[in-house]
Structure formats: structure tokens, C-alpha cells
Design a protein that fits this description.
Blueprint (H helix, E strand, L loop, with lengths): L2 H8 L3 H4 L14 E8 L3 E9 L2 E7 L10 E10 L8 E3 L7 E13 H5 L5 H7 L1 E8 L3 E10 L5 E6 L11 H4 L10 H7 L4
Antiparallel strand pairs: 1-2, 1-6, 2-3, 3-4, 4-9, 5-6, 6-7, 7-8, 8-9
């Protein structure tokens, strides 16, 4: 995971937090994604794409939308290890990101830019500030674009649902689909029971 792994490690005491160390790949394959609902200091969704052996990660305060007219802020955060895709449980008080984490959705993605521009890898798309993917998850599906609009230490992007056959402005999965795709539990049950492993 390169130098970003040290940033992940520096922010955490993995023995206390119970978060993955990055020593195994877990279920995250080459073209996998995960969206984790995270009730930390503020409730948000962590949108993560497996790219070059790590989970590129963005904090999305309102979560993904199915409505192409809604642009959702996505703040890029440090890369996470691939095995973080399976993490569900409670990060204890006093630890970085303290709060409840749910595996809200997961699945696979395909790189839509590779179809348009020969040899446009996910890493190149990330560097260029425009990622276009087709998500095939358990809750959400279809084309999504991530567009960087501000650089700096915590680059800011927009997460936008593409206008395709999977778009549905009436559907609000972040409001109506509140159970984990990993364990079937809601946030309260995860908070009470902790890690399901």
C-alpha cells in the first residue's frame, strides 16, 4: 500500500481499535468496492474502491444517491488496506474514527473510462481526478462518477450518479435500507454486539 499505509497505521492503535492490519486481503478483490456506514463524530458513509492493492477511500457525508441531479461531497481520506472491506464493529472511544462501522453495501465495479480511453487505468483516472465506474452492489448499481474539484491535504471530490437505466430519483437507499449486507444487523445492533467475527 506504499506510503499511505503508514498514514493509516500512524492514525491507529490496531490492537485497541480492532481494525484490520492489512496483513490479509479479506474479501476485497481487484475490482471490488465497499460502502461502510460510519457513525463517528458525524454519521457518514465511507466509499472505497480497490485500486492497486489498496482501498482508495472517500468520506461521503450524505452517502451515495440514486438521483443524477444530486452531487454528493466526497472528501478523500487515507488509503485503507484491502481487508478493511470486511470490517464491521465498534472502534472504541479514544481511538481514531471512534464509533460504529457497518458494511452497508459491497460488490464489484468496472472501469468505464477504460472502455472510452484505451489503457486508462483506475490509478491514472484517480491521478487525473476523474473516476467513472459501474457498480454492481447488493443495494446500489449503475454508473457513478467521482470528480475532483479541490486538491490539498484532503482533496474534495463530487460523487455523482450517472443518468442510466439504474438511476431512480425516488429511491433513497441510505434512508430505507439500514441493515448490513454482511451481518443483517442495523447500527444499534452492531453498537451493542460489536464485531460479528
Amino acid at each position: 500500500m506504499g506510503s499511505d499505509k503508514s498514514e493509516y497505521d500512524k492514525k491507529r492503535n490496531l490492537e485497541k481499535s480492532g481494525e484490520p492490519s492489512g496483513n490479509s486481503s479479506g474479501s476485497a478483490g481487484k475490482n471490488s468496492f465497499v460502502i461502510q456506514k460510519h457513525d463517528a463524530s458525524h454519521l457518514h458513509y465511507d466509499f472505497r474502491l480497490a485500486i492497486d492493492g489498496a482501498l482508495k477511500s472517500w468520506a461521503v457525508p450524505k452517502g451515495p444517491s440514486m438521483d443524477p441531479s444530486e452531487k454528493r461531497l466526497a472528501v478523500e481520506v487515507e488509503d485503507h488496506p484491502l481487508d478493511y472491506a470486511d470490517f464491521e464493529g465498534v472502534i472504541p472511544e479514544g481511538e481514531y474514527g471512534a464509533g460504529t462501522v457497518m458494511v452497508w453495501d459491497r460488490g464489484t465495479y468496472s472501469n468505464l473510462r477504460a472502455d472510452k480511453e484505451k489503457d486508462s487505468s483506475m490509478a491514472e483516472s484517480h491521478k487525473a481526478g476523474l473516476i467513472e465506474v459501474w457498480l454492481k452492489g447488493e443495494k446500489i448499481e449503475g454508473g457513478y462518477a467521482l470528480k475532483r474539484f479541490r486538491g490539498g491535504k484532503k482533496p474534495q471530490w463530487l460523487l455523482i450518479k450517472m443518468d442510466d437505466e439504474k438511476a431512480d430519483a425516488r429511491r433513497k437507499p441510505t434512508s430505507t435500507e439500514n441493515e448490513s449486507v454482511k451481518s443483517g444487523r442495523d447500527m444499534d445492533e452492531i453498537a451493542e454486539e460489536g464485531d460479528d467475527d
